[in-house]
Amino acid sequence: MTSNDIRDRFLNFFKEKQHKIVASAPMVIKDDPTLMFTNAGMNQFKEFFLGINEAKYPRVTDSQKCLRVSGKHNDLEEVGKDTYHHTMFEMLGNWSFGDYFKEEAIQWAWELLTEELKIDKDSLYVSVFEGSNDADKLAMDTEAFELWKAIVPEDRIILGNKKDNFWEMGDQGPCGPCSEIHVDIRSAEEKVKVSGASLVNADHPLVVEIWNLVFMQYNRKADGSLESLPAKHVDTGMGFERLCMVLQGVQSNYDTDVFTPLIREIETITNSKYGKSEDVDIAIRVIADHIRAVSFSIADGQLPSNTGAGYVIRRILRRAIRYGFTFLDTKTPFMYRLVTVLTDTMGKAFPELKEQHQLIENVIKEEEHSFLNTLDQGLVLLDTIVQKTKGQVVDGRKAFELYDTYGFPIDLTALILGEKGLSLDENGFNVAMQEQKDRSRSASEISKEDWIVLTDDTEQEFLGYDLLEAKVKLVKYRKV
Ligand code: ATP
Ligand code: MG
Ligand code: MG
Ligand code: MG
């Protein structure tokens, strides 16, 4: 089954159950001060859950473009290092706005996975909210537990805590318990050694969460207390690429046909090979992932820039360029050349990619040019710093200057120094960074006179040791 078939099968299954198929909302959000990017299928329906607007259709289904790189959901650091978190991904969903509730949601999810899509029942685990002892004193979700017990053996039902099995939109508003479905795709041999039940929610790459069924039954009031909602809602979200991984019988999202055409193209363009070395594999996965995030963002009208959402997109693109530069030896623009393959694989489901193809290519190419120039200049300057260094440790302030004035990524500095047998004075770097932050803070206080607005540092947060962390985490992943 191709990924395009899988998406259609999901949507049509719910269409048959009287759901209206609707389009994905844009991934870039322009009119919500609380959110820069859509990070879940429910975002576009927020007003229905809050009771601000009434839903036109009580049952809806779609595949939503999501981006999880900031705020509450930030998966950026996992991307490339693991095989099942992306920056941009599709979230398949079905909704009930005050219509059906737990019984149908659970039954249909099971029917779709095991009857329609024929996933082996014995590879599935479900989780149910266990209740809480804190101020909320929430009871266990026995309703969901009983419903699942009628379908699956009890030892496949895992009780989960508030973190994993209770969903809240924010400090206030609709919330409720959720039931998740996890799939164990390890070999039979591995399954005998360790029970899959013990690996649910344990970050195992082959025991992954695929679907979250949220049952909105409470409203959290401003004073923190909960009241029962008069109309109860269902909000579900399934990771499309993870579902494809399961149905296509592979062990990584990147081995599905969502990603393989991109990976083949990266191999060709950069003359590299996927599956031979961990560093190169991570770089290839990062690039295959990030080209989607950046292209979809530009298609939605958000170009890379120096502020806000545009800055987030610029950083994602630069992150991919750096991985290419460091591990695939790409010294000229290459990412823009992936846009055609991306459009070929996803353009049917998301026509905006086709419509904006030329713009996407041009913008990415331009960004690549200017960032590669920065890298070139930075390398020359770094060389001068190294030559002037006495001893093994390079002055952190000098490295900060390179980062601050020339935009040269600090992780690259550290990597290059490491290759030369030198090290970076991290403390000096951090002190210089802090001083700069303090300076810009007081500068903004003065210039705004009696209107004190502190500069927002959140987007300029230090993300420097990215590539180095990749190495540390890599070791951890190998042990799994
Ligand atoms: P995880 O625990 O794996 O990080 P989550 O609990 O944060 O997932 P939810 O917020 O419940 O995810 O989102 C619903 C579904 O979306 C998940 O069950 C998963 O299949 C998928 N999903 C979540 N985050 C990602 C991501 N970064 N990349 C791809 N799919 C994702
Ligand atoms: Mg998550
Ligand atoms: Mg989870
Ligand atoms: Mg979840």
Q: Can you characterise this structure?
A:
The chain has 480 residues and is α+β, with helices and mostly antiparallel strands. The chain folds into three domains: 3-254, Bira Bifunctional Protein, Domain 2 (BirA Bifunctional Protein, domain 2, 2-Layer Sandwich), CATH 3.30.930.10; 261-377, no CATH class; 389-480, no CATH class. It is built from 17 helices and 13 strands. Helix 9 (278-299) runs antiparallel to helix 10 (308-328), helix 10 packs across helix 13 (357-388) and helix 13 (357-388) runs antiparallel to helix 14 (396-406). The two termini are 29 Å apart. Residues 164, 209 line the site of one magnesium ion.
Instruction: Tally the beta strands.
Output: 13
| Rg, alpha carbons | 24 Å
Helix/strand-derived category reads alpha+beta
The CATH architecture assignment of the largest domain turns out to be: 2-Layer Sandwich
> How many alpha or pi helices?
17
Order of helices and strands: HEHEEEEHEHEHEEHEEHHHHHHHEHHEHH
Summarize model confidence as the mean pLDDT. Answer: 90
The CATH class of the largest domain turns out to be: Alpha Beta
EC number: 6.1.1.7
Subcellular location: Cytoplasm
Protein name: Alanine--tRNA ligase
Domain Alanyl-transfer RNA synthetases family profile: 1-480
